Amino acid sequence: xxxxxxxxxxxxxxxxxxxxxxxxxxxxxxxxxxxxxxxxxxxxxxxxxxxxxxxxxxxxxxxxxxxxxxxxxxxxxxxxxxxxxxxxxxxxxxxxxxxxxxxxxxxxxxxxxxxxxxxxxxxxxxxxxxxxxxxxxxxxxxxxxxxxxxxxxxxxxxxxxxxxxxxxxxxxxxxxxxxxxxxxxxxxxxxxxxxxxxxxxxxxxxxxxxxxxxxxxxxxxxxxxxxxxxxxxxxxxxxxxxxxx
Length: 245
Prior knowledge:
CATH topology: Ribosomal Protein S5, domain 2
CATH superfamily: GHMP Kinase, N-terminal domain
Number of helices: 4
CATH class: Alpha Beta
Oligomer: single chain
Order of helices and strands: EEEEHEHEEHEEEH
Largest sheet: 5 strands, mixed
Strand order of the largest sheet: 1-2-3-5-4
Distance between the termini: 91 Å
Number of domains: 1
């Protein structure tokens, strides 16, 4: 009597799936509008995933207090603030240390694109308000602020586009959402000027190997290039509408 062969279990690698169904190299849907604040010199509204953010630009204008002005160049100031209702649970309306830090980070990311030497003793103020947060707010804020600066008529060397890459379940993924940002293994926010091929912001939270870091940076740059096209289309749409009047 012949014995039946024992069934062997085939080891199948579980297919990687993101929480929102995106591919590893896919960014969230992006929507950008310009000229949303009539009283500002320039403004922009962005939806990046479920992030909802408004940026307003005022200036160049005289610096107050004057002691903070620079005789040979202008000053860029960025105020980043999360509305109390933008997160759950609600947060305090007072500016936090995190808000201040991200405002400084945004200043460093945007300043290389500006001709600040043209505006001695002047200041350009950028105000960013997070209406709804969904992870990656600093990158989305940089994207909105860059468009608002162009909308204000301020000459720029190039638009600054920002996108993050990171590690989730041992996979390198692009544009982390809120869940991935909190539960992931690493986060690499990056800002980039595509025409000049210059990185203006690079941070990392978490631990990545050298190979993973290179992969994350390259993936984030590709994400920035996709964001850049959306930024250009938003500005193009506004100027085409203005020319048609």
